[in-house]
Design goal:
2 copies of one chain form a homodimer. With about 350 residues, the first copy, chain A, is α/β, with parallel strands linked by helices. Helices cover about 30% and strands about 20% of the residues of chain A. In chain A, helix 4 runs parallel beside helix 5, helix 5 packs antiparallel against helix 9 and helix 7 packs across helix 9. The longest helix of chain A has 20 residues. Chain A is globular, with a radius of gyration of 20 Å. Chains A and B meet through strand 7, strand 8, strand 9, strand 10 and strand 11 of A and strand 7, strand 8, strand 9, strand 10 and strand 11 of B. Chains A, B: Belongs to the Gfo/Idh/MocA family.
């Protein structure tokens, strides 16, 4: 029997006979869904305050299901968002999501240490995966996630919301089009004062530490502003609150060398409120302030300003990623982009530990 | 016979019987000079384009003499500034300046490697010394300069023009008065594209290398913005033009740890145009852009702007330093301040060479 799930698979994946290309899904003559169904896995702050509200604004997707280990949360979300019981999962029965045609995409919003497991389980269930950043605590996790998605012919997008923000895209364009010549120096600071003491961000086993969390924004600032991949790093980890940051670093300063000769001085912290990007080119400068907030990112440069309005960053990200799935176009930030960051993050930790330069 | 020089010495130094305190000159009942006579040693760009014009605007001092190894320059300056022959010296007869009552202060504007020799010769001639930054290439040079000035009961001021700039003083005030709480993070970039190839700045023996030159502005940015002395440094030297920067570094990134826990990420280059300071406090931020130009330095912070007019930075520096000499008050930037920077510069070079953290 040709059920709805099979129909969707043939639409999205392009059918078993078609040539599969990760992140580019072939078109089909079968009727397409107008909106993809998203299931959020992990109902913490980011799902609750950012993604669920964004999914009320999206045009290409909707909040179809939830996965949570907390029955009270399930009940609350069910009422608030009118989610049918059959689309509510816990971590034990999650794999049966494979049989649910309402769910096209599983969005993993768990602590980083759990990204690999839930990405792999979702991929094996035949669902596309959106995964929050940092992609995972290790390069090997990232590679396993990418491989399993490829093997199961599903797409994998990393939740780099800023790459969907036109303000970010504008500074990337200025570099790419060499408006001011080559990039010579980048400085980037991202951080906030976190007064929690027992969050996963302070827990090594759960994937905590500032580098993978806020640090990835600073790293992305440097990578996107240069349009290059770093070839060597130095780094210095520190903390001003050793009683809280026992297992992971509170603050990381890291310095990057790029193939063109461009340099970056980045810093990230759970103890310091900062959010900016400074780029010095051969013949000009650019500054984002703020760089990676949920809204209101803006900047200026030698000849102008960067201040593009955006209704909702997460809604734009979700819609654009879903459109890429529906139209078989490239995802803005596929798993490979997440992996590029984690390769650098691993090198930064190694450099911070050993005190020397680590080549990538 | 009580000649004019002796009279001046008794005015400025306060007489042999008085308790001598370096940089604080005791008042005297003897009539004071209304303007101190300055002799510039070294007539390169900075003397020619900045100091000599400034000395036409000063109220407490004037261009009384010059010391140069180039007879053509001597003739040109003599004509332009109406300098009497008796106040024109070369490097051979320089020490006879001791007998010239017109000269109260010798301003050393030579390459850094020569600062020690000319500061010491000027001090031994009984003249006060203003010395350009960087004070000298080594801590031992700085200490010898301070000691000789003390031994000869003359004052020593380092040419930190920015410390006389009210825009600099304002960000120092904001830190000192804890307007936004403690400083947590400083980022500071100072540099320009130097297209010269055989200047002393590219010559190690003459005291070249970007760290002592533009790097001192970034270091001052971090030291003045925190109001603290760094206790540990890491650093990375690099160049994009090894054919020119054979002996010294073109670019230095350096990171500082301060006793309060504040951190600084600084970068300085002869290949990158940049001039800014970013400060993130516990409860606010501050940004100078530009930080250390000859004019037009300005900034903003969480609750306001920093934009104090200044007629001429060098004239203000010269007048304030001369007033300190005449009124027996503290110099804004005495030799000890130059030494504080060079201590850190030495640690930065060591850290860059060895790749680890150097404690200060």
């Amino acid at each position: 029997m040709f059920n709805r799930r099979d129909a969707l698979k043939s639409i999205i994946v392009g059918g078993a006979a078609s040539v599969f290309s990760p992140n580019t899904l072939l078109a089909s003559t079968a009727p397409k869904k107008e909106k993809l169904g998203i299931a959020l896995v992990g109902l913490g702050y980011y799902s609750t305050d950012l993604l669920a509200p964004a999914l009320q604004m999206t045009e290409k997707c909707y909040l179809a299901g939830i996965v949570t280990g907390t029955p009270e949360k399930a009940e609350k979300w069910k009422q608030k968002y009118n989610i049918p019981d059959k689309n509510i999962y816990n971590y034990q029965n999650f794999d049966s999501i494979a049989n649910n045609p309402d769910i096209d995409v599983v969005y993993v919003v768990l602590p980083p240490s759990m990204h690999k497991e839930y990405t792999i389980r979702a991929a094996k269930a035949g669902k596309h995966v959106f995964c929050e950043k940092p992609m995972a605590p290790s390069v090997s996790d990232c590679m396993a996630m990418i491989k399993t998605c490829n093997d199961n012919k599903v797409s994998l997008a990393i939740g780099y919301r800023c790459q969907h923000d036109p303000n970010t895209q504008e500074f990337m364009r200025i570099t790419k089009e060499k408006l001011y010549g080559k990039v010579r120096m980048v400085a980037c600071g991202t951080g906030y004062f976190d007064n929690r003491t027992t969050h996963w961000k302070q827990n090594k086993a759960l994937g905590g530490g500032v580098m993978g969390d806020m640090g990835v924004y600073a790293l992305q600032g440097a990578r996107l502003a240069t349009g290059e991949e770093p070839i060597a790093v130095t780094a210095q980890a520190s903390t001003t609150r050793p009683e809280i940051y026992k297992e992971v670093e509170e603050t990381m300063m890291f310095q990057l060398q790029f193939p063109s000769g461009a340099l970056a001085a980045c810093h990230t912290s759970f103890g310091i409120q900062m959010n900016y990007l400074q780029v010095n080119y051969e013949r000009g400068w650019l500054r984002m302030d703020s760089l990676s907030n949920y809204s209101g990112n803006k900047g200026s440069h030698s000849k102008g300003i960067i201040d593009f309005p955006i209704k909702n960053q997460q809604a734009k990200q979700l819609d654009e990623d879903c459109m890429a799935l529906m139209n078989s176009t490239q995802l803005i930030a596929p798993g490979e982009e997440g992996l590029r960051d984690i390769k650098v993050v691993e090198a930064i930790y190694k450099a911070a530990q050993n005190g020397g330069t680590v080549k990538i």
